[in-house]
Amino acid sequence: MELVGRALAAPGEIAWVEDPGYWRTRDALRNAGLKPAPVVVDANGFDVARARQQSRARLAVVTPARQFPTGAAHLCALRTRTDRMMDVGAQLALDAFMERGELAAHIRTCHDVYAARRTVLLSALRQSFGRERVGAPSVGLHLTLALNEGVSDRALRLAAQRAGVAVSAFSDHALLPCRPGLFLGFAPFAEGAIRDAVSRLAEVHAALLPASV
After folding, report:
1. Does residue 13 lie within any of the structural domains?
2. Whole-model pTM?
3. In CA terms, which of 17, 33, 89, 114 is 20 to 30 Å from 23?
4. In this model, does residue 178 exceed pLDDT 70?
5. Exposed/middle/buried for 45, CB within 10 Å: 0-12, 13-18, 19+?
6. Helices in the chain by DSSP H: which ranges?
7. 130 shares a domain with 178
């Protein structure tokens, strides 16, 4: 991403970035001498019209298809109001992996395992926090959990870490104030470990709730 930034823009120019968004993207743009300008994402992902109301930029950096970390789907109408698009996700190693037919075999092997773990996490989160708080993107390897405004997602992340549960806070990926929330990966964890982690997360969450909630 740093090389792309250097190739497409001059030092000091503005680059739109999703907010919340992947922090390494912002770091790479800064290393290229650019100024990341946060654009709040909504349920439809990144909105070019909203970005243009805020500032003029040389380029925009957005996650493909599904926004990270919120899981919002990018509508094509919003993403294609730009002159040019570049996909920088392709890697030579992945191309070779696909050409040998190994990617398809790997996907078949992982699909059922990941689907089962996703179902376990989704069920456990809904049971502990309520169906309306749980975001379940149709693709990807994480789910999201919206928190009450009175709960700090960073404080909950730290409390969960002390309880042995690894989660990420939306606020850690945002430059602007955002609704507190967590995103939780499930791919490398056994089903029993997922249930146990959600149980511990619910306990530390309850301990952080204001008395009036």
Report:
1. yes
2. 0.73
3. 114
4. yes
5. buried
6. 2-8, 23-31, 48-54, 76-79, 92-99, 102-129, 153-162, 191-208
7. yes
